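USER: Fancy drafting a protein?

ASSISTANT:
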Amino acid sequence: MTLSKLDQLKTMTTVVADTGDIDSIARLKPIDATTNPTLVLKAIESGKYEAVIEKALLLAKDGNNEALTAGNIADALAVSLGVDILQHVPGFVSTEVDARLSFDTAKTIDKAHDLIALYAKAGIGKDRILIKIASTWEGIQAAKVLEKEGIHCNLTLLFAFEQALACAHANATLISPFVGRILDWYKAASPEADFTGMQDPGVISVTEIYHYFKQHGVSTVVMGASFRTAEEIECLSGCDKLTISPALIDALSQDNGALTRQLTPSTAPAEALDAQVEADFRLGMNSNAMATEKLAHGIRGFIQDQVALESLLTARFL
């Protein structure tokens, strides 16, 4: 029997569902699932999650002696959705810290503690949760503290090697380099260029990070994200994890062509990590127009959807 490309991919890479839709997760049966404010907002706007909303309200009120706010209802909603998702995946669910805290290390740590506490109230231990944080310098330093406390982190909105190196120094559990958004920037800048296959700049970026981590004995998991085409996924077959939308998972499941592994761990002795200080990080980011613009754009987008979610919750419950 011929295996689909999805089944072939699963023999070399852990497939993660990039969706907050529980029906899709139950159907696709991924190992992990990842969400963000955009996906949570879409899930709630679909009208299918009234039961989740009710559970979120109860969770937000439990032990809360202060007046409810849209912010703490939104946190409880993200956690309640995560709890439901965990009924369908054996691994992690990622839950995102409010992107408005992306440049505040202390408040990011506090918010992570709040989310872990909400999961604990719902009966879920921190071993099933990835706290998702934007890969700013401040966010990465928060992850460094949280990881020492045994709280696993997923550093998202990652577009540059400098971000990946900082995450390695922070011993982050997982990073999510954004393949498709990198491609978007280069296609807009050079519309006539050929960015197909292995010439895709997003594919090149993740490949560089993957090989560097393996050559230097970095335990941080590399999870390619934000895919535009199935071809990008195929070019990164063998990556530790890939988070893929339901539409692209379905496309791979319907393709019975051969899939060749592209990324393979190094067998050479591990080398020491390159040194990095904050000034190196900031200079490297400043020198990379694509990374600077896409990080800022991504944070703005997540903030916009967080505000829209809170406005929806305010209109309904406050």
